[in-house]
Amino acid sequence: MSPTRRATAGGIFExxxxxxxxxxxxxxxxxxxxxxxxxxxxxxxxxxxNNTAIQNVVMDFRKTDYYGSTALAxxxxxxxxxxxxxxxxxxxNVSDHGKDILQITQLDHLWPICSSRMEALQAVSK
Length: 126
Description:
With 126 residues, the chain is α/β, with parallel strands linked by helices. It is built from 4 helices and 6 strands.
């Protein structure tokens, strides 16, 4: 199945689907001042996941460099939902700064970090 692009709330995320995998592309840096937009976009994505058979998630950071604690909380909520469905969640194209944030918070132990989207898609399909 070729990926399908969908619009999401707040202009925070672009969403594509490849089979049973949702690909979420962060299109802006998710700073704390964007709390409402992050929450709105997160609610839209969680609603989408709750109303489809999507099992896995790939978070693609190729368009961003930074995310704060509100975004981290969303990532954890998303991971809990994916894990509940026996799915996998993988990050890709994470900047060095983004990797530092994940290491400091020790969240890098929860999600594999891949260098490319193709590698991430392969990781969730194992």
